[in-house]
Amino acid sequence: MQAPLHFYFDFSSPYGYFAAMHIEALAGKYQRKVEWHPVLLGAIFKITECQPLIQIPLKGKYSAHDLVRTARFHHIPFAMPAIFPLATHLAARAVLWLINTQGQDSAGKFVKAVYQAYFVDGVNIGDALQLAQIATNCGFDAAALTQATATPEIKEQLKLQVDSAIEHGVFGSPFMIVDEEPFWGFDRFDQLEAHLKNGKI
Amino acid sequence: MQAPLHFYFDFSSPYGYFAAMHIEALAGKYQRKVEWHPVLLGAIFKITECQPLIQIPLKGKYSAHDLVRTARFHHIPFAMPAIFPLATHLAARAVLWLINTQGQDSAGKFVKAVYQAYFVDGVNIGDALQLAQIATNCGFDAAALTQATATPEIKEQLKLQVDSAIEHGVFGSPFMIVDEEPFWGFDRFDQLEAHLKNGKI
Predict the structure, then answer these.
(1) Could you give the ipTM of this predicted complex?
(2) pLDDT tens digits, A119-140
(3) Phi/psi of residue B45, nearest 5 degrees
(4) In chain B, where are the structural domains located?
(5) Residues of B in contact with A62 (CB under 8 A)
């Protein structure tokens, strides 16, 4: 097996959602496993001095339009949630706990379920009870997951995870790194695939 | 002939350069003419409170890498200029003068020549003498062009042009509007082509 594909994302990122729904198929086509890296864009934006896309004058209005169009173009179900953006640290910690206890594939299953709950069904994924329900639906131990997301250990793990992402140059979502080659954005999947296919671009 | 494709760009935008080299072929394939709209990102960034890409922490380093890779991926000659970014108001005014006096096709010829001079040959396109040389190489009256770019009328025209672009929601380069549908970025050429082909996405 070749080196894994590192997938960095924030649950409040619609383009992260689009990418998350396709990344395993793309990676698997070239014998790569996905490693999931939940991050917090709020912490990263303090470094880059950027604002959430949707809040930027002119760009925000375009982005709202582009998101709907991009979803349609790629045939991905999508409905802009009423609460947007929202706090994603609980969901991110839940992903880390799943990685710790059950591995990357289980984490991936949960990532996709949380993203779909938020960007298709409009569920408030910032809420611990809603996250527990999603975990139950996925067949995970919701009580253990909820408990884990409140521990100092997992909080510290997420902080280190975000620091590590920044050290690796991650500044947005989705952000993919494979063989130390960085790709930012769902619209770099063409170049990412060229790299996976040919080992270079 | 159907409605034209409006192409907004700043000469200091490398992705604008990539797009400018391909936009006429794409538009022409679907019986559209290109209308060139030089803008000044500096003025636009005052509205969006954004910085030039290359100056943003983390994002700047990635962008420098992505530009070279994107050029290679699309087989476009590219060398990052030593002076970057630079003032593009003279070149923008020259384009407006060409549109006024000789039409969109001549303007397009000049746009591509200026972009290539900057992003392939490293010419300082902020310099009036260098712009005159490019105009001469294109077969245009360089003396008339140089004189025109210093008049109050053309300065005012560029200011109105930038204001109009902002009113149309333009916040970056390249930015394309066709049939009132906006597309930002060279990486939206796939969706732009889908629109041109099918009238919708």
Answers:
(1) 0.92
(2) 999 999 999 999 999 999 999 9
(3) -65, -20
(4) 5-198
(5) 169, 171, 182, 184
